[in-house]
Amino acid sequence: MKKVSLYACLLLNFSLLVIFPYSKASQADKLDELILSRSSQNPPKTFSWEAEDALQTQPSSAYVVPPQEGKRLADKIVTLPGQPYGVNFDQYSGYVTVDHDTGRELFYYFVESPSNSSTKPLILWLSGGPGCSSLGYGAFEELGPFRVNSDGKTLHRNPYAWNEVANVLFLDSPAGVGFSYSNTTSDYDKSGDKTTAKDAYVFLINWLERFPQYKTRDFYITGESYAGHYAPQLASTILHNNKLYNQFIINLKGIS
């Protein structure tokens, strides 16, 4: 606990130095000032990006491309090349269209938990970069169920895989990263944080139609590196739309 507390204090001190680099006031005063500004009826422009940047959407059904049931069945992986014997969980991969006009498609890899998957939360993993594949790094080098053997052809189980305690969804994002792509090359030039959050939101709305059993499940967004931008902006978009339509379109519980 002492290490955690020390780490939290260091983060807080660093964040205050970043926000107020030239201030001679005490950190406690500035922290009070920051908290008051966030809870104010008219917060400073610096802290009110949510309303401006959050995706202004139509109702979620506008993004759904039926039929999704057949797509889920088609996405189910029977076995991966070089997969070890005795895999005891379901896994899926495929594409979700996030923009029909430009032909923008995001690729996902989804692994369910080997035990009690119906009661465990859903976790979205986003690698950073920008430009780092969640499949190549997150899934197969970090927290996924498999690691690649030195022969480059076979796999072995990862004893520390996150799907032991949750159902984990890996998303290659934005388009142009990993297996995600667009049929309109100008999309790659226009890619940015706002577009990435919008596309990830549209992806989730459609993916949840494909996997409706997860619609009410506790949902968490996790990631590393530049996902420190992706995660909070996607979370903001989700919360904004939940509030806009007065319902939990996505049952977001937290980000990490």
Q: Which features would summarize this protein structure in a list?
A:
alpha/beta; Rossmann fold; seven-stranded mixed β-sheet; 36% helix; disordered N terminus; protease; AB_hydrolase_fold; signal; hydrolase
Tell me briefly what this model is.
The chain is built from eight helices and nine strands.
Explain what the structure shows.
The chain is α/β, with parallel strands linked by helices. It has two domains: 2-47, no CATH class; 57-255, 3-Layer(aba) Sandwich (Rossmann fold), CATH 3.40.50.1820. 36% of the residues lie in helices and 17% in strands. The chain contains eight helices and nine strands. Strands 1, 2, 3, 6, 7, 8 and 9 form a seven-stranded mixed sheet that branches. It is globular. The relative contact order is 0.14.
N- to C-terminal distance: 19 Å
Mean pLDDT comes to 81
Task: Outline the biggest β-sheet.
Answer: 7 strands, mixed
Task: Give the CA-based shape.
Answer: globular
Could you please say which CATH topology of the largest domain applies here?
A: Rossmann fold
- The oligomeric state of the chains shown is single chain
Structural class of the secondary structure composition? Answer: alpha/beta
Q: What is the number of helical segments per DSSP (H or I, 4+ residues)?
A: 8
Helix content: 25-40%
Topology:
Blueprint: H1 2-19, H2 27-39, H3 49-53, H4 69-75, E1 91-99, E2 104-111, E3 122-126, H5 134-142, E4 146-148, E5 155-157, E6 167-171, E7 181-182, H6 186-190, H7 193-210, E8 219-223, H8 227-244, E9 252-255
Parallel strand pairs: 3-6, 3-8, 8-9
Antiparallel strand pairs: 1-2, 2-6, 2-7, 4-5
